[in-house]
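Re-run with default settings, no changes from the original entry. Doing this only to confirm the output is reproducible before filing.
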Amino acid sequence: MGLGRWMPLSHPDIDEIRVDDVLRALADPHRRAIIRLLLAEGDRPCGTFGLPVAASTLSHHFRALRQAGIIRQWDEGRQRMNTLRLDELETRFPGLVAKVLDAD
């Protein structure tokens, strides 16, 4: 495992999340697929999403979602877990995630 795996992950506080960052992150169809899976099935490890992209590309998508404040990640044993910050996003931008996902 790379050293980055054990470094603390940064997540923006709710009041630091900007609508432009959320919309930019959700503009990508693979990232929307990640969000749909988290909505449907709850927390899950990075390696279980089954998207047709390279692992490095998937890591890039997770990082973009985390930095935008859409997901929270943490290490659990040898896996990196992901959860959707839906309650926080709904507080900050009511209905935004649903509207973006419904637009597909």
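The first helix runs from residue 19 to 26. Strands lie at 44-45, 71-76, 79-84.
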